Fold this sequence. Notes:
By secondary structure, the protein is α+β, with helices and mostly antiparallel strands. It has helices at residues 11-22, 39-44, 64-74, 86-121, 128-151, 162-176, 186-196, 202-205; strands spanning 3-6, 28-31, 52-54, 60-62. The protein has 2 domains: 2-74, 3-Layer(aba) Sandwich (Glutaredoxin); 86-206, Glutathione S-transferase Yfyf (Class Pi), Chain A, domain 2 (Up-down Bundle). It has a 4-stranded mixed beta sheet, covered by helices on one side. The mean pLDDT is 94. Residues 85-214 form the GST C-terminal domain.
Amino acid sequence: MRQLYHFWLSPYSRKVRLVLAEKKLDFELKAEPVWERRDEFLLLNPAGEVPVLEDEDGTVLCDSTVICEYLDEISDEEPKLLGSNPKERAEIRRLVAWFDGKFNREVTDHLLGEKLLKRFFSTGTPDTKVLRAGRTNAAYHLDYIGWLFERRNWLAGDHLTMADLAAAAQISVIDYMGDINWSKHPRAKDWYMRIKSRPSMRDILADRQASFPPSSHYAELDFE
């Protein structure tokens, strides 16, 4: 069976998990403590980063974008998450780059990095200024999600695509930490409720860490 080396609160790992579930591909999760920099893991990915997918034939793939596009190509499950024509693919890839890059850099890195990763990497205590900046940036991005969802059936167009999964992966991480005031972002909330109800989200919503519990509404499909 294919194996996915992951970290439970890595948005990139979550994105791959969502694609695997949407494509109905069997896989086994292997938690990887990247801060330990295990030699066995570095042989799979010298960058020392998750996610890493080891496919059934022994093929090893690194980088979430590479993995997700590979999975979309090898699966016959419809719809294609990267679209069916060049214009669709261009818009989907633009939004995936937005959430993987801009959103992660301006929001997730700030909040996850300060609240949790500093603890794991023993690099100090949370910086309240950085946390405040992350929450401020999150509001801007949630407004953009709401703007997109007002004009489209899903974020990139008429059907669910990789853009929605990339966004959901990031949003689910900061929602786990309780850093979203959903009452101020009703259209983004409508979108998130919709994707949250998909079967592919069930395992994500079941994630728990005893020393770092989720927000009270994290797994609720109808939430405040």
